[in-house]
Design a protein that fits this description.
Number of helices: 14
Strand content: under 5%
Structural class: mainly alpha
Radius of gyration: 21 Å
Shape: globular
Order of helices and strands: EHHHHHHHHEHHHHHH
Helix content: 55-70%
Strand order of the largest sheet: 1-2
Distance between the termini: 70 Å
Number of domains: 1
Number of strands: 2
Length: 363
């Protein structure tokens, strides 16, 4: 005999996981993966950047550090290849975490009877609460979001987690309020809250008819030994890993290349001179596209401000860079809907333009 647990469509790991032993093993696995990342890498790095304060530096076009130096005198193809490698190296630890944690989250959530509520706003809150502590950038959240959605979590939960992880992290928020005037920091926070509290429920309601139905059934044994639970979890994790990896990994390589191509096309003195409407629009469109690491948006916006970049450009970068990227948008498009991906990009770019105009009006 077996009880039944519903999961999202047939593209899910059909594994015999569901008793308390299996869930316990998956929770331990998730805790181990997250603990090693948070304690050994993510939060020490974030705290180092926070304590650097006004001395914070970024030596790469898309990264804090570099493996290969990039000089503007180099041929374009050389700069692109070096920037791509620098990006892959900078995201190596974070991506390793996300490619390990995303499948674990999928395997765990697939054992639950419910991964969503009947309220879009409650689903948004659940996604926000899941995203805030993850401490990963808009790139590294993408494979995890793939796992969330494939388990049957709602569109609004997935989008809220993707926005909350890079933008509402407590250390990143502390950096923002420490480095910028209060008005700019509040503008940044308001833009993030608008995305999560207004855009996410609205876009999910408009896409209601395309939300996948929970129609696949997993057979779960009524009882299992620890050995059976271990085997079941291992099988589920391997299948979950393939679901995440087969889509997210090729898109990661493509995003690194596209990001490098885009950033190396930007003229060296593009932000010099007075801020114009065309300049604000261009900055917003480009910044929303670029794949940057955690807190890079805060760091580069502050560095530009300290070097005299017009405040409207600084505000635009602060409100667009790092909240999404070509990578996260491509995963949204392939996993949920290209319409939602396009609407997300357009909305973030529009927010950046409004932020730039507000800053120009009060500068």
């Amino acid at each position: 005999m077996a009880v039944q647990t519903s999961v999202l469509n047939v593209d899910l790991p059909v594994a015999r996981v569901g008793t308390w032993r299996s869930r316990t093993l998956i929770i331990v696995l998730m805790a181990m993966i997250a603990g090693m990342f948070w304690v050994d890498s993510r939060y020490p790095a974030l705290m180092k950047r926070y304590h650097a304060g006004s001395q914070i530096k970024a030596s790469g076009a898309l990264t804090f550090g570099t493996v290969y130096n990039v000089d503007r005198s180099m041929p374009y193809t050389d700069r692109v290849s070096r920037t791509t490698i620098n990006w892959l190296e900078a995201n190596r630890v974070g991506m390793t975490f996300s490619f390990l944690f995303g499948p674990a989250a999928l395997a765990f959530l697939a054992t639950l009877r419910r991964r969503r509520t009947g309220s879009r706003y409650m689903n948004t809150l659940l996604g926000t609460l899941a995203g805030v502590p993850l401490g990963v950038c808009s790139n590294c959240i993408a494979p995890i979001a793939r796992g969330f959605y494939s388990s049957g979590m709602s569109t609004e939960s997935v989008l809220a987690a993707m926005f909350a992880s890079p933008a509402l992290n407590v250390v990143v928020l502390a950096m923002t309020f420490a480095l910028f005037p209060l008005s700019l920091a509040l503008l940044k926070l308001a833009s993030v809250l608008f995305l999560i509290l207004i855009f996410v429920p609205l876009i999910s309601s408009r896409e209601q008819t395309t939300t996948p139905t929970l129609n696949c059934v997993i057979d779960v044994p009524l009882a299992e030994t620890w050995g059976e639970a271990l085997i079941a979890v291992a099988r589920s994790y391997v299948k979950s890993f393939w679901i995440v990896f087969r889509l997210a990994f090729p898109l990661m390589i493509l995003a690194a290349l596209l990001g490098a191509m885009a950033v190396e096309l930007i003229p060296q003195n593009a932000l010099a001179g007075h801020a114009t409407l065309f300049g604000i629009v261009a900055v917003s469109v480009i910044a929303a596209f670029l794949p940057v690491p955690m807190a890079f948006d805060v760091a580069i916006a502050f560095i530009l401000m300290a070097h005299g970049t017009p405040l409207p450009y600084v505000a635009t970068i602060l409100c667009t860079l790092g909240i999404i990227s070509v990578y996260s948008l491509s995963v949204i498009g392939k996993t949920i809907s290209w319409k939602i991906a396009g609407a997300t990009y357009a909305t973030v770019a529009a927010i950046g333009i409004v932020a730039g105009l507000i800053a120009r009006a009060f500068a």
